[in-house]
Amino acid sequence: MSKILRAGAVAVAFMAVLAGTVFFAVQQVRQEEGYLAYGQELEAAVLKQGSRGEDVKTVQQKLKRWGYYTGSVDGIYGTQTKKAVEYFQRKNGLTADGIVGSKTFAALGMMEQASGGSQSSGSSNGYTNSDTYLLARCIYGEARGESYTGQVAVGAVVLNRVRSADFPNTISGVIYQKHAFTAVSDGQINLTPDQTAINAAKDAMNGWDPTGGCLYYYNPVTATSEWIFSRETVITIGKHVFAI
Description:
By secondary structure, this protein is mainly α. It has ten helices and three strands. A hairpin with a 2-residue loop joins β2 (233-237) and β3 (240-243). The longest helix is centred in the first third of the chain and has 44 residues, at 2-45.
């Protein structure tokens, strides 16, 4: 009888060890799966040399349209794309590491990617929330010292350019067109806009255009381009002359 009891005890002990081993193995697999998912999430959060896909292609298209990139729009993040990103980052006051993370995504007008895909879209006027925020940043960088009407006017010029065949057809494309806006050149585009600038962006998007369709504006005191003075003046609002 004692032999039977001893055998049973051994069997129970063996089963306990086996169950513990299986449990550990399952936990190990789950842990490894978690590390893999975390790694994939990190990979999706940034674009860098070696990355591929539609987001890379979008970055290339934007940088090419704005004059930072001259290579192929092939969705492959190679050396030339990295150099173009570094150039863009230097011009916009960002760390020039050649990696497209959240700040560079935001500077490129890719707010959905910058926020991990959680950015919602607007629908009342056809613009997204990222469009509104980027326009507000432009207004804040260019005209935060101007009256509210003057701030809306700057936003209206951006939108007039979007609608014009002579300019890129997106808000981010217009704003980041090479040498188009001082705020982009000196990095003020990366400042956080206040509520006034955000409201001005929304009003411009909803159709308020104090300029009457102007495509250009400048401060005659600080402007250095002879060409801009040749444009036909339509209206002066605050320190800015608006022209066509």
